[in-house]
Amino acid sequence: MKLLKTIVVLLAGTTLTTATALAQQVGTATAVNPESRTTPPGGSTVVLKVGAHVMHKERIKTTPTGSVQLLFLDRSTLTIAPNSDRAVHFAALERAARAARRGLWGACAARPQ
Fold first, then answer.
1. Full domain range(s) for residue 61
2. Mind giving me the DSSP string for the chain?
3. Strand 25-33's sheet: what is its strand order?
4. Is the separation of the CB atoms in 31 and 52 below 8 Å?
């Protein structure tokens, strides 16, 4: 019974940690020409403005004459071309979330009964 409670607590922690990691800011919009729209995960579509925070899995849509430049936390950049509809995936966050889940599952499997 104690093992079951431990597993439940670890799984709840994994879910919260993963959800938090996936909703983290991954960068900033450094250029928006002339108008583009963005939809954060679970949010509504708004006009993207210079200086706006960009979240993991946020969707950015440019107009036929528009473009967006993003500066990520690791200092890399991405330019989104005109007439694009792209979701922002920051691989480092996904790798960290997978490693956290693997580590917790490993702890559950290795725990003595």
1. 2-110
2. -HHHHHHHHHHHHHHHHHHHHHTSEEEEEEEEES-EEEE-TTS--EE--TT-EEETT-EEEE-TT-EEEEEETTS-EEEEPTT-EEE---HHHHHHHHHHHHHHHHHHHHS--
3. 53-55, 25-33, 67-72, 77-80
4. no
User: What span, in angstroms and rounded, lies between the C-alpha atoms of 76 and 45?
Assistant: 25
In order along its 113 residues, the chain shows pLDDT tens digits of: 555 555 544 455 544 444 444 468 989 999 999 889 999 999 999 999 999 999 989 999 999 999 999 998 888 888 999 999 999 887 755 666 666 666 655 544 444 44
Given this model, what pLDDT does residue 34 score? 87
Tokens 């979240």 belong to 55
Number of structural domains, the chain?
Answer: 1
Q: Which residue has the tokens 């007439």?
A: 83
